[in-house]
Amino acid sequence: MGAAQDWRWSSARSHIAGRRAADDPLTDIAALGAHVPNWRAMLARGLEAGGLDTAGEAVADAIEARLRKGRLLGAEEWIARQEAECGRRLTPARPGPKPRGGEA
Predict the structure, then answer these.
(1) Which end of the chain is more exposed for a tag (fewer CB within 10 A), N or C?
(2) Contact, 11 vs 24, CB < 8 A?
(3) What is the structure's pLDDT at 102?
(4) What are the boundaries of the region Disordered (predicted)?
């Protein structure tokens, strides 16, 4: 299917660039730019992300990365408190085979 900015008749290319693309005689950047200031974020994450600045995009990227891996996003101290409260490990264990019995 491809990204919206790759579609022949899409105005997304112009909106992402912040100026009308050479082959796009119809797009009015100012008209929709006032409503969706960050087209790249909106196309990647949905309409509610269209207002994100660079810092907001970085936070959204961090959240999505943690969600994909099933990991918590928070300060180490907060995660340690959550582990203590629920009595189980919430952070990933070291990869590889685990030691047997009394071996260290």
Answers:
(1) C
(2) yes
(3) 59
(4) 1-20, 85-104
- Contact in structure between 16 and 40 (CB atoms under 8 Å): yes
Please name the helix (run of DSSP H) or strand (run of DSSP E) that holds residue 61, with its range, or none: helix 54-69
Question: Does an H or E element contain 41, and which?
Answer: helix 39-45
E strands present in the chain: none
Nearest Cα residue to 18 out of 7, 5, 1: 5
Q: So what's the pLDDT on residue 87?
A: 92
The single-letter DSSP state of residue 22 is: T
With the C-alpha atoms ordered 98, 100, 102, 104, is the resulting torsion angle positive or negative? negative
Return all residues near 91 (Cβ < 8 A) that are at least 6 apart.
Answer: 71, 72, 79, 83
Which residues touch 4 (CB under 8 Å, ≥6 apart)? 10, 12, 43
